[in-house]
Amino acid sequence: MGLPLSVSMMNEARAAMEASGGNLARAALALGISRSTLQGRLAKAKAKEKSSNHPIGLRSDPEDSTFLKSRIKRLEIQLVEAEKQRLDHEMIKRRIIGLTQNVETAETPEWLFEKCKKTTSPGVPTLLVSDLHWGEVVDPTQINGVNKYDLNIAHERLERLAERTIRLLSIISPTFDYPGLVMPFAGDMISGNIHDELVATNELSSVPAVLDLFGALGSLIKTFLLRFDRIFIPCVTGNHGRDTKKIWSKDRHTTSFDWLLYCFLAKHFADDKRVSFLIPNGTDAYYKVFDHRYLLTHLDQFRGGDSMIGALGPIIRGDHKKRSRNSQIDMPYDTMIGGHWHQYIHLNRLIVNSSLKGYDEYAFQGNFPFEIPQQALWLNHPKHSITFRMPVQVEKISSTKSSPWVSVK
User: Fold this and answer.
1) How many CA atoms lie within 13 A of 108 on its CB side?
2) Is residue 38 classed as helix, strand or coil in its secondary structure?
3) CB atoms closer than 10 angstroms to residue 328
């Protein structure tokens, strides 16, 4: 019979398991013991706790040396795990992707704070790009023919987005007196395989969708560079591009194909000083245009709604919670912007984007209001803040009539 197991060793075993996220192999490696030995210690700790009907970890006196040693060991293990995780993220960005810019904590470019040199300038335009759902297919026969979406249409709509954005901005300023363009990417850039129905019906799976969209968004940026001297692109991840069954709170960015796509784009334009990216590791991105403070997020964190108020209820409640949280951490903002809801809403305090995909089978079966595919566009004036508000409609103008009613005599 072996020596009795001390409370300190029981605490140490549990601390290792907690620090490693429940991974037995990593916990055993951190303690320098075998998996079977660790399993034995955990089993004895559980049995002792059950017999005494009292948590093992709370039985030691905080002034006791064994308790302090156990706590130090737990912190050491947590530190090692945190450092490994940080190195994993850095390895992906620096070594695998080859990204040299510090895009996760990049500051807002200085040109967004400068007053417009030309008095005729209407300010800085922002084009919110989100919910492209690249690779998804919308079957018009299932939604009364009101919309259709596939890869070819997606490419056409993205090209149309650039063309019509430039046209609208040319109407406001024929001489195109804009210091640059802000183009936030708000997530759900690809359709993803998060539902069985998407796995069965998507035209492209996640990886080829990312590769195809990388080329399309690269062309979009290059098109805008023909008219704008500078482009700033803050980015956040959505919920559709994930490679996990459920959305993660921890490491959400590294489990998202959106994040991978953004890093590829930042690497591609790394040598072009006209283009800058902000790709935070968290769910929110913060930046300013002149004195106007923006919080960019995907808005999938908000739940609820009903048949009367629809998406507006949960979004306004979510905005209120974020403002309350941010006021406590000294990070207040003026306007929250994002996507997810596929409805164009532009208020003073929040801007919600529509989608490139447009109306689909889910919206049709849910009896949601019909909305054409469009993306939000607005101007920030250095003195008057947000001025012009103009959604960019990306569908091809057609004279096609709706399906006729079937009549039985």
Assistant:
1) 20
2) helix
3) 9
Q: How many CB atoms lie within 10 A of CB 122?
A: 19
**End-to-end alpha carbon distance in the chain:** 92
Stretch 131-157: mean pLDDT? 97
Query: pTM of the prediction?
Result: 0.74
CA dihedral 368, 369, 373, 377 (to 10 degrees): -110
CA dihedral 130, 132, 133, 138 (to 10 degrees): 130
Per-residue pLDDT for 391 more than 90? yes
**One-letter amino acid identity for 116?**
C
* Mean pLDDT confidence for 314-327: 92
Rounded to the nearest 5°, which phi and psi values hold at 149? -150, 130
Q: What is the DSSP letter of 142?
A: G
Domain locations in the chain? Answer: 7-96, 110-393
CA–CA dist 209, 257 (Å, integer): 9
Q: 357: helix, coil or strand? A: coil
C-alpha–C-alpha distance, residues 102 and 91, integer Å: 13
174-177 long-range CB contacts below 8 Å, 24 or more apart?
175/120, 176/227, 177/116, 177/118, 177/120, 177/121, 177/122
DSSP, collapsed to helix, strand or coil, labels residue 351 as: strand
**Cα within 13 Å of Cα(21), Cβ side:** 7
Residue 62: the pLDDT is 52
Q: What is the CATH number of domain 110-393?
A: 3.60.21.10
